[in-house]
Amino acid sequence: MDALYTAVATATHGREGRAVSSDGKLDLQLGIPKEMGGSGEGTNPEQLFAAGYSACFASALGLVGRAAKIDVSDAAVTAEVGIGKQGEGFGLAVTLRVELPENVDEATGRKLVEQAHQVCPYSNATRGNIPVDLVIE
Protein backbone atom coordinates (compact mmCIF):
# COMPACT_ATOMS: atom_id res chain seq x y z
CA MET A 1 0.00 0.00 0.00
CA ASP A 2 1.21 3.51 -0.81
CA ALA A 3 -0.01 5.58 2.15
CA LEU A 4 -1.72 8.87 1.31
CA TYR A 5 -1.58 9.95 4.95
CA THR A 6 -0.15 8.50 8.16
CA ALA A 7 -1.60 9.37 11.54
CA VAL A 8 0.81 9.26 14.46
CA ALA A 9 -0.18 9.12 18.11
CA THR A 10 1.61 8.09 21.28
CA ALA A 11 0.01 6.60 24.38
CA THR A 12 1.69 6.50 27.76
CA HIS A 13 0.66 4.53 30.85
CA GLY A 14 -1.79 2.34 28.91
CA ARG A 15 -5.50 2.54 29.65
CA GLU A 16 -4.94 4.94 32.56
CA GLY A 17 -2.63 7.34 30.79
CA ARG A 18 -2.74 9.85 27.99
CA ALA A 19 -2.92 9.67 24.18
CA VAL A 20 -1.47 12.50 22.11
CA SER A 21 -1.27 12.90 18.33
CA SER A 22 1.95 14.12 16.74
CA ASP A 23 0.28 17.38 15.66
CA GLY A 24 -1.22 17.99 19.12
CA LYS A 25 -4.82 18.11 17.83
CA LEU A 26 -5.65 15.03 19.88
CA ASP A 27 -4.65 15.10 23.54
CA LEU A 28 -6.81 12.86 25.70
CA GLN A 29 -6.80 11.52 29.21
CA LEU A 30 -7.40 7.78 29.12
CA GLY A 31 -9.32 5.86 31.75
CA ILE A 32 -10.70 2.41 32.35
CA PRO A 33 -14.52 2.28 32.09
CA LYS A 34 -16.46 1.71 35.30
CA GLU A 35 -17.83 -1.49 33.75
CA MET A 36 -14.28 -2.83 33.70
CA GLY A 37 -13.46 -1.76 37.26
CA GLY A 38 -12.02 1.67 36.53
CA SER A 39 -12.97 5.18 37.51
CA GLY A 40 -14.65 5.92 34.18
CA GLU A 41 -12.73 9.19 33.93
CA GLY A 42 -11.17 9.82 30.56
CA THR A 43 -11.87 8.11 27.30
CA ASN A 44 -10.86 4.58 26.39
CA PRO A 45 -9.50 2.78 23.32
CA GLU A 46 -12.91 1.31 22.48
CA GLN A 47 -14.49 4.78 22.31
CA LEU A 48 -11.66 5.98 20.09
CA PHE A 49 -12.07 2.96 17.81
CA ALA A 50 -15.87 3.51 17.69
CA ALA A 51 -15.41 7.18 16.75
CA GLY A 52 -12.90 6.36 14.02
CA TYR A 53 -14.87 3.44 12.58
CA SER A 54 -18.18 5.35 12.50
CA ALA A 55 -16.59 8.36 10.78
CA CYS A 56 -14.75 6.21 8.27
CA PHE A 57 -17.82 4.10 7.49
CA ALA A 58 -19.96 7.22 7.02
CA SER A 59 -17.39 8.51 4.51
CA ALA A 60 -17.39 5.17 2.67
CA LEU A 61 -21.19 5.27 2.56
CA GLY A 62 -21.03 8.76 1.07
CA LEU A 63 -18.55 7.53 -1.55
CA VAL A 64 -20.73 4.65 -2.72
CA GLY A 65 -23.83 6.84 -2.51
CA ARG A 66 -22.29 9.44 -4.80
CA ALA A 67 -21.21 6.72 -7.24
CA ALA A 68 -24.83 5.47 -7.31
CA LYS A 69 -26.16 9.04 -7.54
CA ILE A 70 -28.06 8.60 -4.27
CA ASP A 71 -27.88 11.33 -1.62
CA VAL A 72 -26.95 9.76 1.71
CA SER A 73 -25.36 12.91 3.14
CA ASP A 74 -27.84 12.90 6.05
CA ALA A 75 -27.00 9.33 7.06
CA ALA A 76 -25.70 8.71 10.59
CA VAL A 77 -23.43 5.82 11.58
CA THR A 78 -23.12 4.69 15.18
CA ALA A 79 -20.40 2.19 16.05
CA GLU A 80 -20.76 0.06 19.16
CA VAL A 81 -17.43 -1.51 20.10
CA GLY A 82 -17.57 -4.22 22.74
CA ILE A 83 -14.60 -5.72 24.56
CA GLY A 84 -14.64 -8.99 26.44
CA LYS A 85 -12.73 -12.08 27.39
CA GLN A 86 -11.74 -14.25 24.45
CA GLY A 87 -9.71 -17.33 25.24
CA GLU A 88 -6.68 -16.33 27.30
CA GLY A 89 -6.94 -12.67 26.29
CA PHE A 90 -9.51 -10.16 25.15
CA GLY A 91 -11.40 -9.60 21.92
CA LEU A 92 -13.54 -6.97 20.26
CA ALA A 93 -16.90 -7.07 18.50
CA VAL A 94 -18.52 -4.26 16.52
CA THR A 95 -22.08 -3.35 15.62
CA LEU A 96 -22.50 -0.60 13.04
CA ARG A 97 -25.94 1.03 13.20
CA VAL A 98 -26.70 2.98 10.04
CA GLU A 99 -29.56 5.46 9.95
CA LEU A 100 -30.33 6.22 6.31
CA PRO A 101 -32.22 9.26 5.03
CA GLU A 102 -35.92 8.78 4.33
CA ASN A 103 -35.31 9.09 0.57
CA VAL A 104 -33.47 5.73 0.55
CA ASP A 105 -35.62 2.58 0.40
CA GLU A 106 -34.67 -0.52 2.40
CA ALA A 107 -33.28 -2.60 -0.49
CA THR A 108 -31.20 0.26 -1.87
CA GLY A 109 -29.98 1.12 1.63
CA ARG A 110 -28.90 -2.46 2.30
CA LYS A 111 -26.99 -2.53 -1.00
CA LEU A 112 -25.22 0.77 -0.23
CA VAL A 113 -24.31 -0.33 3.30
CA GLU A 114 -22.89 -3.62 1.99
CA GLN A 115 -20.88 -1.73 -0.65
CA ALA A 116 -19.59 0.70 1.98
CA HIS A 117 -18.51 -2.29 4.08
CA GLN A 118 -16.39 -3.46 1.15
CA VAL A 119 -14.54 -0.15 0.66
CA CYS A 120 -14.24 1.18 4.24
CA PRO A 121 -10.63 0.84 5.45
CA TYR A 122 -11.77 -0.06 8.98
CA SER A 123 -14.05 -2.78 7.60
CA ASN A 124 -11.20 -4.10 5.49
CA ALA A 125 -8.88 -4.10 8.51
CA THR A 126 -11.35 -5.94 10.75
CA ARG A 127 -12.74 -8.40 8.18
CA GLY A 128 -12.01 -11.94 9.32
CA ASN A 129 -10.51 -10.69 12.60
CA ILE A 130 -13.51 -9.55 14.64
CA PRO A 131 -17.26 -9.86 14.16
CA VAL A 132 -18.88 -6.78 12.60
CA ASP A 133 -22.69 -6.68 12.44
CA LEU A 134 -24.38 -4.23 10.09
CA VAL A 135 -27.76 -2.94 11.27
CA ILE A 136 -29.88 -0.58 9.20
CA GLU A 137 -32.26 1.50 11.27
UniProtKB/TrEMBL annotation:
Name this protein carries in UniProt: Organic hydroperoxide resistance protein
PANTHER family from the UniProt entry: ORGANIC HYDROPEROXIDE RESISTANCE PROTEIN-LIKE
InterPro entries (UniProt xref): KH_dom-like_a/b, OHR, OsmC/Ohr_fam, OsmC/Ohrsf
Membrane spanning residue stretches: none
Family the UniProt entry places it in: Belongs to the OsmC/Ohr family.
